[in-house]
Specification:
The protein has 16 helices and 15 strands. The two termini are about 35 Å apart. The model has no long low-confidence stretch (mean pLDDT about 100). It has a seven-stranded mixed β-sheet, sandwiched between helices. It has a four-stranded mixed β-sheet with strand order 1-2-3-13. By secondary structure, the chain is of the alpha/beta class. It folds into two domains: about 5-60 and about 340-440, Aspartate Aminotransferase, domain 1 (Alpha-Beta Complex), CATH 3.90.1150.10; about 65-340, Aspartate Aminotransferase, domain 2. The structure holds pyridoxal-5'-phosphate. Pyridoxal-5'-phosphate binds near residues 115, 219, 224, 254 and 280. Pyridoxal-5'-phosphate binds near residues 144 and 280.
């Protein structure tokens, strides 16, 4: 149904230029498979899988059915000191997908909540082990870890932090980003250059004392900042330094989890074992909000002492393990298994890389980056107006070319479906080239 223009005002939209949007609203009213339907009844091809969420396509009949059934059977059950059947089953299914040793999942409602939960678990873990001095948290420049106070503090996206600068949580430091166009531009997959940047963590251990650091959090492949794959050997080196100093390594896999990098988790794909993995998005294919924090057994076990009747972690959400979200998650896990979604994604990587890198010699393009089914084409910024070209591409693709992409400033970002059809991509990239060719 079309939204009356006088209806637009009340909604303060997230991460949106509200005034600009309300002059030319882009409103979706339906979705099926790989397409959205707009309020004007037009079909748009979704080249972003929702917001990195909907890898197996929109309104997948199995998930729709599972949600409909669950909501009629058990809409909600209290989750503290009592729980519902579906949440246990989903925790087990997710742990089975995770790397060995991750047998426990703590449920949240979003990626931001997963991140803040993971940071709290890391701090409480050290305390429970008698290492209460480990209070420092380390993030990375350009990292995105959601929008809650913990997440923006360890995050490194400047506009998300500036207004809150004096109130970010204390005791946080950042290692450097691994992107440096002089050395990494047009890398296919992991850049060869940049492993040494992991040593920035060693520098912070020297500065603060490694024994004071609780955890390091990174996205294995950074997404929201505009796709940055880890340099070859970089994640391995981070792991080594964490081991040397007893620091927990957290992989924020809110985007990279559940097939986006051609495996269940980036930890598996890169063969680097973190201590904690944060997830959301693909956990339910985006259908019902839900996140999960997966922890290695030694972390869960560290909490399981003291009187049996005592709560071990004073943390949780009203909707942790929500039965309808869990039902969506279970159906999603079934689909991943039955359709072989992670293998499908792996097979699409090669052609995706080729199509992206066909833009490498375009005069307006200064970098092309990709890993798995995450891709970015960075345009040179327009003189005095960084981000303007990116936004224009997003809007023209929506209005004129009828497909959905996102821009991170001047990086045009792609997050195609795990079960995409190659023949759908060709016209998308052709039309994108037309937009880039014909813009100022
Ligand atoms: C790596 C990462 N962490 C955390 C988040 C926050 O997730 P949410 O928007 O569900 O709170 C995101 C969202 O894109 C993300 O990409």
């Amino acid at each position: 149904m079309a939204v009356a223009r006088e209806e637009l005002e009340s909604y303060w939209m997230p991460f949106t230029a509200n005034r600009d949007f309300k002059k030319s609203p882009r409103i979706i009213t339906g979705a099926k498979g790989h397409h959205y339907t707009t309020e004007g009844g037009e079909k748009l091809y979704d080249m972003f899988s929702g917001l990195w969420t909907s890898g197996v396509g929109h309104c997948h009949p199995k998930i729709v059915e599972a949600v409909q059934k669950q909501v009629a059977e058990l809409d909600y059950a209290i989750g503290f000191q009592v729980s519902n059947d579906k949440s246990f089953e989903l925790a087990r299914r997710v742990s089975e997908l995770a790397p060995d040793g991750f047998s426990h999942a703590f449920f949240t409602n979003s990626g931001s909540e997963s991140v803040d939960t993971a940071l709290k678990i890391a701090l409480a873990y050290h305390r429970s082990k008698g290492e209460g001095t480990r209070t420092r948290l380390i993030g990375r420049e350009r990292g995105y870890h959601g929008v809650n106070f913990g997440g923006i503090s360890v995050g490194g996206i400047v506009p998300n932090r500036v207004a809150f600068s004096a109130n970010l949580i204390p005791g946080v430091d950042h290692i450097r980003t691994t992107i440096d166009l002089e050395n990494t531009a047009f890398s296919r997959g992991q850049p060869e250059w940049g492993m040494h940047l992991a040593d920035d963590l060693e520098r912070l251990c020297t500065l603060h004392g490694g024994a004071n650091i609780a955890a390091v959090i990174v996205e294995p492949v950074a997404g929201s900042t505009g796709i940055i794959a880890p340099p070859v050997g970089y994640l391995e080196r981070l792991r080594e330094i964490c081991d040397r100093h007893g620091i927990l390594l957290i992989f924020d896999e809110v985007i990279t989890g559940f097939g986006r990098v051609g495996a269940a988790f980036a930890a598996e794909r890169f063969n680097v074992q973190p201590d904690i993995i944060t997830t959301a998005k693909g956990l339910t294919n985006g259908v019902i909000p839900m996140g999960a924090v997966l922890v290695q057994d030694h972390i869960y076990d560290a909490f399981m002492h003291g009187p049996e009747g005592a709560i071990e972690l004073f943390h949780g959400y009203t909707y942790s393990g929500h039965p309808v979200a869990a039902a969506a998650g279970l159906a999603t896990m079934d689909i991943y298994q039955e359709e072989g979604s992670f293998d499908q994604a792996r097979e699409l990587e090669g052609p995706f890389e080729e199509m992206l890198h066909s833009f490498a010699d375009h005069p307006k393009v200064i970098d092309v980056r990709n890993y798995g089914l995450m891709g970015g084409i960075e345009l040179a910024a327009r003189e005095g107006a960084p981000g303007a070209r990116g936004l224009e591409v997003h809007k023209r693709c929506y209005w004129e070319e009828k497909f959905m992409i996102r821009n991170a400033m001047d990086v045009i970002c792609f997050s195609p479906f795990l079960n995409s059809k190659l023949e759908d991509w060709e016209p998308v990239f052709e039309r994108l080239r037309h937009v880039i060719d014909t813009m100022e």
